[in-house]
Structure formats: C-alpha cells, structure tokens
Specification:
168 residues; 18 strands; 3-stranded antiparallel sheet; rod-shaped
Length: 168
C-alpha cells in the first residue's frame, strides 16, 4: 500500500492510494478483481486491478488520524491478502480573510459604515470587533462614537477541518 503525496497533509489534499498484488502473474494467469481501500474499517472505494495495481484518489478525509489498509479479495488463481495499515494524519487546512477596509478618514458624525469581509472555507461568519478607538460594532455595521483613530479587526473561527483564520 502506498499513499502519496505524504502521510501528513492538510485537509483537502488529494491523496492517491495505490495497492498492488505481487506477483500479479503466474504462468498465463493474471490477478483480476478489485483492491478495496479502507479507513479504519470504512470502505473508501474498490477500484479494479490493472497490471497488478489499483488506485483511488480521495480529498475528503476529515482532519485527524486515519489508518488505511488495502484488501485484495483474491480470485480463482490468486489468494487474497490485506496490507499492513498505513497511518495518515490530516491537519486542519489554513483559511484567510479578505477584509475591505472602510473609507478613511471620515468625519465624526458620519452615518454608520457597513464593513465587508469574505472568510475562508470553514463556513463560519466573519466577526468584526473594535481593537482600539471610539466606535461600536453591531454585526457588520461600524458606528463612530468619538474623535480619533478607530482600529477594526476581522476574525473567523475554524472548525474540525479548517484552522481559525489569522486576524485581519
């Protein structure tokens, strides 16, 4: 069993898993059938054998530790076999925030300002907050409440498959 590109990858990485039957020919007989790939007992797929090998490509393993095995069920001429387990660790993927800063400078008393930011793939909302200065935020609306510089931050939490975005 071979897994590439590596055994520690970020979520969403396309992993190619290849299992092989060796030897796959004996006289005029060639191994036939499928090789089934499992993640801790859960079937990932069962591609057909060609030239003694079968491969699947998967990019949806959740973040965490996985134990991958390949199982050849055998055929009329070749006995079945199971590979040794190969550990694969999927780390949460990075995500970024694109924050469009509001116009600056503004005059005290200006109408509330709508803030705009696009978050990463976690699906969590981008949350705005005041880092310093005289202002308040409700949802994505900034209200200036005094004179001076207001610094606004955008944050997005992570989830099981995505790390929290770096604050902007």
């Amino acid at each position: 069993l071979a897994v590439s590109p590596g055994t520690t990858e970020p979520y969403g990485t396309n992993l190619v898993m290849t299992g092989s039957v060796s030897p796959y020919t004996s006289g005029s007989n060639t191994a036939t059938g499928t090789i089934s790939f499992y993640d801790s007992g859960t079937l990932l797929g069962s591609p057909s054998i060609a030239s003694g090998q079968a491969s699947i490509s998967i990019s949806t393993l959740a973040a965490g530790s996985h134990s991958i095995t390949a199982v050849y069920g055998g055929d009329a001429n070749f006995a079945g076999s199971t590979s040794a387990a190969q550990g694969v660790t999927i780390n949460p993927a990075a995500q970024t925030i694109t924050f469009t800063p509001p116009s600056s400078p503004v005059t005290y008393g200006v109408a509330p300002i709508t803030l705009s930011a696009t978050g990463g793939a976690s699906g969590n909302a981008v949350i705005f907050s005041i880092v310093s200065g005289l202002g308040s935020i409700s949802g994505s609306t900034l209200t200036i409440t005094g004179v001076g510089t207001v610094v606004v931050a955008a944050n997005q939490a992570g989830n099981a498959n995505y790390a929290a975005a770096t604050q902007v």
